[in-house]
């Protein structure tokens, strides 16, 4: 019973797991969605994931090496190619906050599909570790998730939201032009 006092079972973590599950299901079913539906749902998921991720409790892992990566390279590449296909011409965007920008004379181009898959990978790995129910594994996975939030998927959320915002309104504008 004392395991449920573990930081991995806090209210914030449980709420985050629920959002992660929904997001991962969303990415996994995205290839069957119309582009507009995917973009509009992504527009709503990304800020929610970012918010819930920013509320996660900080922790230090009790052990190292217990949390595994569950998303394979093949799965990542499959979802990336499907999302890239789905987004088509709307997939790429210019990113000015990329650290490589200072060394580049050309614009730095990023991909909504790739960033979405990066976010998916970190969240899917976390909820897969969470499902095992072992507090030490959950603690290590939570620590990794927090570290990756700071350096990877949190930044990815911020980037993708700006790009998706642009696409949502570009699609609306194109639809209005078609109706005129």
Textual characterization of the structure:
By secondary structure, this protein is mainly alpha-helical. Helices cover 66% and strands 3% of the residues. Strands 1-2 form a two-stranded antiparallel sheet. The longest helix has 45 residues, at 135-179. The relative contact order is 0.18. This is DUF5063 domain-containing protein. InterPro entries: DUF5063, DUF5063_sf. Pfam families: DUF5063.
A few lines on this structure:
By secondary structure, this protein is mainly α.
Which characteristics define this entry?
single chain; 180 residues; mainly alpha; two-stranded antiparallel sheet; 5 helices; 2 strands; globular
Write the layout of secondary structure elements.
Layout lengths: L10 H19 L5 H20 L18 H15 L4 E3 L14 E3 H20 L3 H45 L1
Antiparallel strand pairs: 1-2
Helix pairs in contact: 1-2, 1-4, 2-5, 3-4, 4-5
InterPro entries: DUF5063 (IPR032025), DUF5063_sf (IPR038312)
Organism: Candidatus Odoribacter faecigallinarum
Pfam families: DUF5063
* Proportion of residues in extended strands: under 5%
Q: State the end-to-end CA separation.
A: 64 Å
Strands of the biggest beta sheet: in what spatial order?
A: 1-2
- Work out the helicity level: 55-70%
Backbone CA Rg: 18 Å
Number of helices: 5
Number of strands: 2
Spans of at least 5 consecutive residues whose pLDDT stays below 50 are none
| Principal-axes shape call | globular
Query: What class would the helix/strand composition place it in?
Result: mainly alpha
Q: How confident overall, as mean pLDDT?
A: 91
Give me the strand/helix succession. Answer: HHHEEHH
Largest pleated sheet: 2 strands, antiparallel
Pfam family, one: DUF5063
Organism: Candidatus Odoribacter faecigallinarum
InterPro entries: DUF5063, DUF5063_sf
Protein name: DUF5063 domain-containing protein
């Amino acid at each position: 019973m004392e395991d449920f006092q573990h930081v991995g079972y806090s209210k914030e973590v449980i709420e985050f797991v629920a959002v992660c599950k929904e997001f991962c299901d969303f990415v996994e079913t995205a290839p069957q969605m119309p582009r507009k539906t995917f973009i509009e749902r992504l527009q709503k998921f990304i800020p929610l994931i970012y918010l819930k991720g920013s509320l996660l409790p900080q922790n230090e892992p009790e052990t190292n090496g217990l949390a595994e990566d569950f998303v394979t390279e093949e799965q990542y590449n499959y979802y990336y190619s499907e999302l890239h296909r789905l987004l088509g011409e709307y997939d790429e965007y210019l990113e000015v906050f990329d650290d490589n920008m200072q060394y580049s004379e050309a614009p730095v181009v990023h991909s909504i599909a790739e960033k979405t898959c990066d976010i998916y990978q970190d969240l899917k790995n976390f909820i897969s570790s969470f499902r095992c129910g072992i507090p030490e594994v959950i603690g290590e996975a939570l620590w990794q998730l927090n570290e990756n939030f700071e350096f990877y998927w949190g930044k990815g959320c911020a980037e993708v939201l700006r790009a998706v915002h642009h696409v949502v309104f570009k699609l609306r504008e194109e639809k209005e032009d078609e109706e005129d």
